[in-house]
Design a protein that fits this description.
9 helices
Length: 182
């Protein structure tokens, strides 16, 4: 064990030096993650998992990014950095996994209530409810919540108001269809 630990430490130093020079080396970060895991260094393992998740997303490897995310959570990670998490949500949308994207947007918004990314996540969740999940009532609630948000959003106000209007129209249309079916 002693020699293995020494070799792991030595490899860790070499890889740390490598990623200092080549910060986007996915292979090096993956190896570092394995070393940190074997050394039971949870803090560094979680940091490396965030980095590999981000790099997988940049490479449009969404499934690999979700695997990194799952391992991050399993190792005790509570919340990804907001920007990485937002990219992960968008990745789920690109894969047409709308339920998962919706759930992640909701968790992100709850985890970072005072951050602009939370408002972005809330608006994205509202859009999914309206356009993909056929939940105009939920979309309306999310848009109204975004409109009342203390997070500065003047640049999104028109988008929010049109979302509210579109959700109300969809709800009315749904009621009209339900009434005509009776």
């Amino acid at each position: 064990f002693r020699s293995e630990h020494g070799q792991l430490s030595e490899a860790g130093v070499l890889l740390t030096n490598h990623v200092a020079v080549v910060p986007n080396s996915l292979d090096a970060w993956n190896l570092l993650r394995q070393i940190y895991f074997r050394q039971s260094d949870t803090k560094l393992y979680l940091e490396a998992s965030i980095k590999t998740c981000s790099l997988h997303l940049k490479a449009h490897e969404v499934e690999a990014a979700f695997q990194d995310y799952a391992e991050f959570i399993d190792a005790g990670g509570s919340k990804m950095p907001a920007s990485t998490w937002l990219d992960l949500c968008k990745g789920a949308e690109e894969k047409l996994d709308f339920e998962r994207a919706f759930g992640e947007y909701q968790q992100l918004a709850a985890a970072y209530p005072a951050e602009r990314q939370a408002l972005t996540a809330q608006l994205s969740a509202a859009r999914l409810c309206l356009k993909r999940l056929n939940q105009p009532q939920d979309a309306l609630a999310l848009y109204q919540s975004a409109a009342a948000s203390p997070i500065p959003h003047l640049d999104w106000e028109q988008h929010i108001q049109s979302g509210i209007k579109e959700a109300k129209t969809a709800i009315s249309a749904g009621h009209a269809i339900a009434a005509s079916a009776q």
